Amino acid sequence: MSFALLGLDLSLLKVIDSLDYKKPYPIQQKAIPAILEKNDILGIAKTGSGKTACYVLPILQGLQSMVKEKNRNVSALIIVPTRELAAQVEEVFRQFSAYLPNPIKTMAVYGGVSINPQMKALYGVNVLIATPGRLIELADSKAVHLSLVSTLVIDEADKMLNLGFKDEMDKIFSLLPSVRQNLLFSATLNKGVDKINRVLLTNPVVIKIEEEEDNIDQIKQVAYSVSEEVKGPLLRYLLTKLKDYQVLVFTSSTRKADNVGHKLRKNGIPCEAIHSKKSQGARTAALREFKAGRLKVLIATDLLSRGIDIDTLPFVINYELPRSPKDYIHRIGRTGRAEAIGEAISFITNADRHHFKTIQKKMGKWVTMINSDSLSLP
Fold first, then answer.
1. Are 79 and 366 in contact (CB under 8 A)?
2. In the chain, what is the straight-line distance between the N-terminal and C-terminal CA atoms, in Å?
């Protein structure tokens, strides 16, 4: 199926063609026509399956026929859990807006930066992408009005529930009009997501793509048996071998991310670390450089990985294992996207062995283990 069969306007098809998108993903094939018909949507599909374009394209098309006066009322509201995802969604809106006859003003707002410039820039915004806390601050300050929102999107609903946004979401719902289109997207359908579905959605079109997060057949996995003190030399050894490729390195804490980054730079390997304790400016700059391919090595914690979507990322390294098998699968799923081949490398200490066996059992795959003693490490 081609995008031309989904009911999209020629202006959007033109930009889709310019971005060299060959065909819609399965969730896009089902969701885009349903959203254009003004249905509520519950969309369940793994991260990286094209969910963002599912709502971006219909929203842009719908706004083309609306007369928007310049004021502080927004027409479409997208709520996301993290600053990085907010910036990523804003970029998708900007990309798809390139050839629209009627310009659409899109803006992302989030905490960690000064609120005053955001308050000023909100005038005339059509599409607002926001994290819950900052959105409430702006609404309380009368910098944005939500009473005329025609389309509400909750993206990464499963992650938002895990991060405990319930009180903020209840406050936001109270500011919205009762009649609106609601679009709920999630990587999983857990009890919390199902509860929001029953509260928010009216006769929704339920789209569940049976392509679970653990569909990782195209990802090559390898693990290194390593002592804690050898992790650093092993990482430098691998990054030197992979110097022509981009590599995403995962740690389990902000402190470890900074320590790893410091040691790599000290040994002549350019890299950046992103985590919740970094300034928003530093995080945004590091992500921009990594996505553009100018930065080869990025070190991240699990939460920040939600804003890292690169279709051709070839390598992921688990410097430390995550707490849960689900998080492990999410991490390695950063590579091997869009039908590309990827490789995931994990460092396993003696203390990790039992946990790694549990991870392998849960995903139904056994990973080749290499003894790092056999390598000539720096």
1. no
2. 51
CA proximity to 346, closest of 359, 362, 361, 337: 359
Distance of CA 126 to the CA centre of its chain: 22
Rounded Cα distance, 164 and 187, in Å: 17
Can you tell me whether residue 313 is helix, strand or coil? coil
- 10-residue block means of pLDDT along the chain (378 residues)? 91 88 90 96 82 95 83 95 89 90 93 93 96 96 96 88 82 94 87 78 86 66 95 95 93 93 95 83 84 91 65 89 86 73 92 95 91 86
- Answer whether 311's CB lies under 8 Å from 256's CB: no
pLDDT of residue 364: 87
The per-residue DSSP string of 24-82 comes to --HHHHHHHHHHHTT--EEEE--TTSSHHHHHHHHHHHHHHTS---SSSB-SEEEE-SS
pLDDT score at 212: 47
- Cβ-based neighbours of 130, under 8 Å, separated by 6 or more: 77, 78, 79, 80, 86, 108, 109, 110, 138
CATH number of the 3-208 domain: 3.40.50.300
**pTM for the full model?**
0.66
The residue extents of the domains of the chain are 3-208, 219-374
Task: Record the tokens describing residue 193, joined without a space.
Answer: 């997501």
SS3 163: coil
Homologous superfamily assigned to 219-374: P-loop containing nucleotide triphosphate hydrolases (3.40.50.300)
**Same fold across 3-208 and 219-374:** yes
